[in-house]
Automatic annotation (TrEMBL):
Record's protein name: CubicO group peptidase (Beta-lactamase class C family)
Domain spans labelled Beta-lactamase-related: 16-317
């Protein structure tokens, strides 16, 4: 398996730390390289924490499935059912929890008013000064357009987290830790910026990523080992503490044109093979994760360099994930029987 991912560090030359973790069946491999660069150079390990960016949304999707499995929410619930009265006066009943998790809610990519505040910190911490009060103010202005059509939305992912927190009566970070992170044993994963790699953008160090008003859309940090454990929970036979929820997140629910959308996970198929995947990027880190239930394959790649227009790390990681799936499928394929020509 190592030969399929050996090229990944070269795809992110600005990074000083890279970690890759993969599983096929019962075999597990973790590859790391570089130094963390925070608090003095330290070697990267499987427990080194990277910013996940939008990969956080898949955790939010798993939390949604877990709460639906408990009967605390329904995927068809209008989001406003789990928000304070008057919090979203312009959102109709068609903006449901499921549509938020499939980017079909019709919400814009960013909350109203965020972009103008983000521009001064665009290359460092664009979300830092947009807090919970700002999010609430944006939500009061928000309107949904063309609900039912795919339109990627950080706003929608963040709003789903707000709704789940409202349904449980607990802050999102605490709720996620209680329902997802601790049950899966993800000890390196949380929303705090402490004890993590120093991120880089075009070779320059970046401050820790902050997104106080939209944690469910992109606040998590995690390690290669934790991500591998997380992805393994999404593979059959789904016997872990979130087994039913993990199976539910992989069900296709909407179309994005060239691929299907599950609960935040993107899904593509090739012949009888499938791959669910998601990427994430902050100003200082890039993350990619994928899994294939049909081949019992899981794959995660992390780098402490933020994505740029010329970055190929995510594309190369995506190709490596498919290569792992194809290799696993070829090993398990049964040979076709040789026809008995004498019987014809």
């Amino acid at each position: 398996m190592k030969d399929l991912v050996a090229h990944l560090p070269a795809a992110v030359p600005d990074a000083t730390a890279v970690a890759v973790a993969l599983r096929q069946g019962d075999r597990e491999v973790v590859l790391v390289g570089g130094t963390t660069g925070r608090g003095g150079p330290r070697p990267v390990t499987g427990h080194t924490r990277f910013e996940l960016g939008s990969l956080t949304k898949t955790f939010t999707g798993l939390l949604l499935a877990e709460m639906a499995d408990r009967g605390e929410v329904r995927l068809t619930d209008p989001v406003r059912r789990h928000l304070p009265v008057g919090a979203a006066p312009h959102l109709g009943r068609d903006v449901t929890l499921e549509r938020l998790a499939t980017h079909t809610s019709g919400l814009a990519r960013l909350p109203p008013g965020l972009l103008s505040r983000a521009v001064p910190r665009w290359r460092t911490n664009p979300y830092r000064d947009f807090d919970a009060d700002d999010f609430a103010a944006a939500l009061r202005r928000a309107r949904s357009r063309a609900s039912g059509r795919y339109r990627y939305s950080n706003f929608g992912g963040a709003l789903l987290g707000e709704a789940l927190a409202g349904a449980a009566g607990r802050p999102f970070a605490d709720l996620l830790a209680e329902r997802v992170l601790r049950p899966l044993g993800l000890t390196d994963t949380d929303c705090t910026p402490s004890a993590q790699v120093t991120g880089h953008l075009r070779g320059r160090p970046r401050p820790p990523w902050e997104i106080p008003g939209m944690p469910a859309a992109g606040a998590l940090r995690s390690s290669a080992l934790d991500l591998l454990r997380y992805l393994t929970a999404h593979l059959p036979p789904f016997t872990g503490p979130l087994g039913r929820a993990a199976a539910e997140v992989a069900r296709p629910r909407a179309s994005a044109g060239d691929h299907d959308v599950c609960l935040f996970w993107d899904l593509r198929r090739r012949a009888d093979r499938e791959l669910l995947f998601h990427s994430g990027g902050t100003r200082g880190c890039t993350a990619f994760a994928a899994f294939s239930p049909t081949t019992s394959t899981a794959f995660a790649a992390l780098a402490n360099a933020g994505p740029t227009p010329g970055s190929t790390f995510v594309q190369r990681a995506y190709e490596a994930a498919w290569a792992l799936v194809d290799r696993a499928a070829s090993r398990t394929a049964r040979p076709r029987p040789v026809p008995d020509l004498r019987a014809t």
